[in-house]
Design goal:
Blueprint: H1 15-20, E1 23-26, E2 29-32, H2 37-46, H3 57-79, H4 85-98, E3 102-107, E4 110-115, H5 122-139, E5 145-147, E6 156-158, H6 171-187
Antiparallel strand pairs: 1-2, 3-4, 5-6
Helix pairs in contact: 3-4
Bound molecules: zinc ion.
Residues 148, 150, 153, 155, 168-169, 173-174 line the site of zinc ion (ZN).
């Protein structure tokens, strides 16, 4: 059977995972579904990423290097092992070349994607805040962007609680006030 008979695997629910899944096991052997630039072109289009041109040989080597690093770090994340600093550096170098302000770090057994520069110019801060608003608007689930239930409170939050049951900005302030009021009403 030729390699082309094995279809691309879009089963990861995440494009980064689908990319790593271009290296599959087939008949007990590794099979690369993107063995050349033309196949990679096809994969990109299937993944909804539009390449301006076909990758060169060198660029394909970079793609394989990135895929290897991503696979290793995902494996580490899955098995709760410490990822190699080299693999993180490989991924982070490409993050930096694409989004200079972001940095992938692994500190205290936790991955974070955080601002690379602590000091930002005013225009970058405007852009950063606006981008965060845009990302929130584009990603927040219905009914989870909320105002505190105290009608006199203006604080807003994204409800990340199980079942979206959070009602208050804080239990210490509005939540407690409501509890006290309910208790008082119960007494009268
Ligand atoms: Zn409140």
């Amino acid at each position: 059977m030729s390699q082309t008979r094995v279809p691309f695997q879009f089963i990861g629910n995440d494009t980064a995972l689908d990319f790593v899944n271009t290296l599959v096991a087939y008949k007990d052997a590794p099979l690369d579904l993107i063995p050349d630039a033309a196949k990679f072109d096809g994969w990109l289009k299937a993944a909804g990423i539009t390449p301006k041109r076909t990758f060169s040989m060198d660029e394909m080597q970079a793609i394989y290097g990135l895929r290897t690093a991503m696979k290793a770090v995902f494996d580490a994340r899955m098995s709760d092992k410490t990822p190699s600093a080299q693999d993180i550096a490989t991924i982070d170098a490409y993050v930096a070349s694409y989004t200079p302000n972001l940095q992938l770090t692994y500190v205290n057994k936790t991955f974070t994607l955080r601002p690379r520069d602590e000091e930002l110019e005013p225009h970058a801060i405007l852009g950063k805040l606006a981008q965060m608003a845009a990302e929130l608007l584009a990603s927040v689930a219905d009914g989870t962007l909320k105002n505190c239930s105290n009608p006199e409170c203006v604080l807003v939050y994204k409800d990340t609680s199980r079942g979206s049951k959070r009602r208050w900005c804080s239990m210490k302030t509005c939540g407690n006030r409501a509890k006290v009021a309910a208790f008082r009403d119960g007494l009268s």
